[in-house]
């Protein structure tokens, strides 16, 4: 039996950077995101007597390649397969094929979509369907594969990851579904190449910044205001919150030891353009930046055409990816092999 899952990536309005528990992948802070309709991963899995687990991945614009246990992320993927098989009665190996429709590992959208699609497909193929259908359980299972941002792709729309004290109380919760608010995320792709320093490594450095504890304290009020702004559908309130949190997270990155600096010329140019467009043209678009130089521009759907047109004129922008809020991870009938 083949099982295929499709999952969107998501963009964090309140970012997760730094962990409270490195084994259980528990973030230091609650984080909030929106799913991205234009950035998806499709993963097909099948059990069989293959002699070992086989993972093949097709990254955006590239051919299929076999994954071995070479990086932390790849280790995490294989460990996730073993962990889920250990919970099931079926001890067969699994063949996995996975495709991304956007450049991975470039801070465009974290590996959220691949980890959530993989976990969902594995739970179903190994007969652990109850863990797939119970979204809270599914979010906890996804977290254990090492990408906490993936936890937020369980639900559609606007989602909060609750950072608890342990495994049981750390899970995803939906704030509002994908139909609730016509917000869009236009990704300005400046550099589609793999980032030099992964988020997995970055989380381990967060507490070497002298400002990390300050971030954790000052963000508590922002989390509350972010939730409110989404429920009120208030872009004038949400936009500044998204920017504040991006700046706060990048300040931690830039002041950790060693420091991490992800921005490029193009990143700063877009930040400055957005300030100008808001002030002079009343165009309400706001930036969010993950662990990479690419910029997510968040605005209401009514302004998306104008924002996209302007971004495309920017000399540093290679292309743009349009995203609306969409459904979370789900099982589909169209298989990759
Ligand atoms: C900067 O370790 O969850 O995107 O890099 O996809 O594994 P991956 O992500 P994760 O860290 C996410 C870091 C972030 C902020 C965020 O999405 O909350």
Number of strands: 14
**Low-pLDDT sequence parts:** none
Overall pLDDT metric? 95
Number of helices: 10
Helix content: 25-40%
What is the string of SSEs from the N terminus onward?
EEEEEEHEHHHHEEEHHHHEEHEE
Secondary structure category: alpha+beta
Computed Rg: 19 Å
Distance N terminus to C terminus?
12 Å
Bound molecules: ligand DP6
Main sheet summary: 8 strands, mixed
Outline type: globular
Residue fraction in strands: 25-35%
Describe the model.
This protein is of the alpha+beta class. Helices cover 38% and strands 26% of the residues. It contains ten helices and 14 strands. The chain has helices at 72-87, 112-125, 129-133, 135-143, 148-151, 199-205, 212-232, 235-255, 265-281, 301-313; strands spanning 2-14, 19-21, 26-27, 31-48, 54-58, 64-66, 93-100, 158-162, 171-176, 183-189, 286-288, 295-300, 319-323, 330-332. Strands 1, 4, 5, 6, 7, 8, 9 and 14 form an eight-stranded mixed beta sheet that branches. A four-stranded antiparallel beta sheet has the order 11-12-10-13. A two-stranded antiparallel ribbon has the order 2-3. Helix 7 packs antiparallel against helix 8. The longest helix is centred in the middle third of the chain and has 21 residues, at 212-232. It is globular. The N and C termini lie close together (12 Å). The mean pLDDT is 95. It binds ligand DP6. Ligand DP6 binds at residues 12, 15-17, 31, 110-112, 147-149, 199-200, 203, 290-291.
């Amino acid at each position: 039996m083949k099982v295929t899952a499709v999952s969107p990536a998501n963009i964090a309005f309140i970012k997760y950077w730094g962990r409270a528990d490195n084994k259980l992948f528990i973030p230091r802070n609650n984080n909030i995101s929106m799913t991205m309709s234009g950035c998806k991963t499709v993963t097909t899995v099948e059990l069989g007597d293959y002699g070992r687990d086989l993972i093949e991945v097709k990254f955006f614009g590239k051919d299929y390649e076999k994954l071995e246990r070479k990086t932390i992320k790849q280790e995490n993927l294989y460990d996730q397969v073993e962990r889920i098989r250990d919970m099931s009665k079926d001890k067969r190996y699994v063949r996995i094929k996975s495709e991304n429709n956007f450049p991975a590992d470039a801070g465009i959208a974290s590996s959220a979509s691949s980890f959530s699609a993989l976990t969902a497909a594995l739970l179903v193929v190994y007969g652990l369907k109850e863990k797939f259908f119970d979204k809270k359980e599914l979010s906890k299972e996804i977290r254990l594969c090492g990408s906490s941002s993936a936890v937020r792709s369980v639900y559609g729309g606007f989602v909060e990851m609750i950072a608890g004290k342990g495994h049981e109380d750390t899970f995803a919760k939906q704030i509002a579904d994908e139909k609730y608010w016509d917000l869009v995320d236009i990704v300005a792709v400046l550099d589609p190449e793999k980032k030099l320093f992964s988020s997995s490594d970055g989380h381990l450095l967060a507490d070497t910044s002298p400002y990390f504890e300050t971030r954790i304290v000052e963000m508590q009020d922002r989390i509350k205001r972010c939730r409110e702004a989404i429920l009120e559908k208030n872009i004038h309130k949400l936009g500044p919150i998204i920017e504040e949190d991006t700046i706060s997270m990048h300040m931690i990155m830039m002041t950790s030891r060693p420091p991490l600096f992800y921005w490029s010329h193009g990143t700063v140019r877009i930040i400055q353009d957005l300030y100008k467009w808001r002030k002079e043209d009343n165009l309400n678009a706001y930036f969010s930046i993950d662990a990479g130089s690419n910029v997510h521009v968040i605005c209401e759907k009514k302004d998306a055409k104008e924002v996209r047109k302007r971004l495309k004129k920017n000399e540093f922008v290679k292309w743009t990816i349009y995203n609306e809020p969409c459904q979370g991870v789900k099982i589909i009938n169209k298989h990759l092999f």
